[in-house]
């Protein structure tokens, strides 16, 4: 009995010792990153490389190689592979974030030159594009009206289509609807603009207007709404539907009172993200709205301006003043899209199921 106990204790002690392996300290990764950055910059300078991007790529490669070599020497091959995969994820993340941060910084630095209350509350009017001054008030009005009309068209159609596909869709019709939704998801924005141009303006004879642009934007928005709403409806447990139907509630009322309230947070988030998706579209607006230098509050008549088209037209002018206005309008457009994304995240957090009591 004593021998058995002693052998068991020795086996447990050997297992415990084998589980205790050397580990790199927490400051090893940041220290390696600093060393790799300095070495990469030094190699870039010594080699006469002018591009900072090349310096960064050299530093990233040195960081990955140093992490794998150091971890292999201290922790073993298995842990080194794990650290290499983690480091590779961080490097690719930084490679994706750096261009976005650089673009945002450049837009803020250049756009803040003329961005003030006057710029937001005045239009171009009769001001020549080469002269300083003017603003984007007419473009703001046009963007809000066009995106609002597109939402009023696309959101109900997308919501009802998703309800049909999830709750009623069976057979060939449902497969055909799903197929065309997938096709519409990938069509270029210029195709939607050409479709409305040929039907609304060339065949029916209507002129350019904000409403024509809104119809093209609605075509681009619809598949996003359908797909996001469809996924949210599928997440609703079938037990809730069955419980409602077992009580004798009609199916349409079950959808209206049980299914939609349960998924309303995700549906609203999808709609807001779809709005952010179409806000920056320029091609259909250029074809159908044409742009105007004066304020046009009526989206159903005559040409109208929008923020993406305003940025394009001001950049096309080629003067210093028009460049400043283009950067400022781009900054406003980015801020508008960011606000929409924050609103979507806020709605998702507000309507998400509570996990704690």
Q: Which terms summarize this structure?
A:
357 residues, 77% helix, mainly alpha
Structure, described:
This protein is an all-alpha fold and 357 residues long. The chain is 77% helix and 0% strand. The chain is built from 14 helices and no strands. It starts with a helix and ends in a 6-residue tail after the last helix.
Radius of gyration: 29 Å
What percent of residues adopt helix (DSSP H or I)? Answer: over 70%
Strand residue content: under 5%
Give me the strand/helix succession.
HHHHHHHHHHHHHH
Q: Detail the poorly predicted runs.
A: 15-19
Mean pLDDT across the residues is 89
Distance between the termini: 52 Å
| Number of separate strands | 0
Biggest β-sheet: count, sense, barrel?
none
> From the helix content, strand content and strand pairing, which structural class follows?
mainly alpha
Put simply, the count of helices is 14
Shape: flat
Oligomer: single chain
Give the helix/strand layout.
Layout: H1 2-19, H2 28-47, H3 52-74, H4 77-111, H5 117-121, H6 137-168, H7 171-185, H8 189-203, H9 210-234, H10 238-246, H11 251-279, H12 283-288, H13 307-317, H14 320-351
What would you say about this model in short?
The protein has 357 residues and is mainly alpha-helical. It contains 14 helices and no strands.
């Amino acid at each position: 009995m004593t021998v058995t106990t002693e052998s068991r204790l020795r086996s447990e002690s050997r297992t415990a010792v084998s589980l205790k392996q050397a580990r790199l300290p927490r400051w090893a990764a940041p220290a390696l990153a600093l060393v790799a950055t300095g070495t990469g910059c030094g190699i870039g300078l010594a080699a006469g490389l002018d591009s900072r991007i090349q310096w960064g790529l050299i530093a990233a490669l040195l960081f990955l190689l140093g992490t794998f070599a150091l971890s292999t020497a201290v922790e073993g091959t298995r842990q080194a592979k794990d650290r290499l995969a983690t480091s590779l994820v961080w490097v690719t993340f930084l490679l994706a974030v750096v261009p976005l941060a650089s673009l945002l910084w450049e837009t803020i630095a250049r756009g803040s030159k003329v961005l003030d209350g006057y710029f937001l509350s005045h239009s171009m009017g009769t001001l020549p594009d080469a002269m300083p001054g003017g603003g984007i008030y007419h473009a703001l009005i046009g963007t809000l009206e066009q995106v609002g009309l597109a939402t009023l068209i696309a959101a109900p159609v997308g919501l009802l289509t998703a309800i049909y596909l999830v709750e009623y869709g069976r057979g060939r019709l449902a497969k055909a609807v799903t197929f065309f939704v997938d096709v519409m998801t990938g069509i270029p924005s210029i195709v939607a603009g050409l479709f409305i141009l040929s039907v609304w303006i060339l065949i029916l004879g209507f002129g350019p207007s904000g409403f024509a642009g809104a119809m093209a934007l609605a075509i681009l928005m619809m598949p996003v709404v359908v797909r996001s709403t469809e996924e949210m409806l599928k997440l609703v447990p079938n037990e809730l539907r069955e419980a409602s139907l077992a009580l004798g509630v009609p199916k349409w009322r079950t959808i209206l009172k049980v299914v939609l309230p349960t998924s309303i947070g995700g549906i609203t988030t999808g709609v807001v993200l779809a709005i952010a998706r179409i806000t920056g579209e320029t091609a259909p607006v250029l074809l159908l709205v044409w742009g105007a230098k004066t304020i046009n509050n009526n989206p159903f008549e005559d040409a109208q301006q929008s923020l993406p088209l305003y940025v394009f037209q001001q950049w096309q002018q080629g003067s210093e003043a028009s460049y400043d206005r283009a950067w400022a309008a781009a900054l406003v457009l980015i801020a508008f899209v960011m606000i929409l994304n924050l609103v979507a995240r806020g709605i998702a957090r507000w309507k998400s199921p509570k996990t704690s009591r």
